[in-house]
Amino acid sequence: MRVLSFLTSLLVALSFLLPWLRPPSGELTFLHILNEIVTSPNGFEGAFWWLNPSSTGSIFTYVAFFAGLFMILLGVFFGLLGGRLGPGVGLVGMLLFTVIAWYFYGGGFLEILGEGYLLALGSFVAGFLLAGGKYL
After folding, report:
1. Helix spans in the chain (H)
2. pLDDT in the model for residue 93
3. H or E element, residue 21
4. What distance separates the 2 farthest-apart alpha carbons in the chain?
5. Counting beta carbons within 10 angstroms of the beta carbon of residue 40, is it exposed (0 to 12), middle (13 to 18) or buried (19 or more)?
6. Residue numbers of the chain with a pLDDT score lower than 50
7. Which residue of 23, 76, 79, 100 shows the fewest CB atoms closer than 10 Å?
8. Where are the domains positioned within the chain?
9. How far apart are CA 23 and CA 54, in angstroms?
10. Residue 96 and residue 71 in contact, taking contact as beta carbons nearer than 8 Å
11. Non-local CB neighbours of 89 within 8 Å, separated by 6+ positions
């Protein structure tokens, strides 16, 4: 069953190259989101100004968004190493990413989903269900 965890995590890693979101401002891939975080001259605040970390009410959304991104990367890493826990961690990260993106984009969230997001979500679900084996 560890091979399935590896294969599904490999699919998620490949989905990083495809568009995850298609807002009116243009396509966003997972790698673009990470690039904005790492190379933005203003740091995290400049990359995702819409999360508004200086606001008391939205600091939770700010922290949850980055926790979701980190959990997706951890899920891929653990899955590529053959761990059964990887797809589960990635699935929780996808849940956090989805909730925060849904909060930001509102009712139009389903219309802006890209192929990369759907591939990643499907791969994590398949990895969680199939690679968990008797431990699920």
Report:
1. 2-15, 30-39, 43-47, 59-80, 85-105, 115-131
2. 94
3. strand 19-21
4. 47
5. middle
6. 136
7. 23
8. 1-131
9. 24
10. yes
11. 71, 74, 75, 78
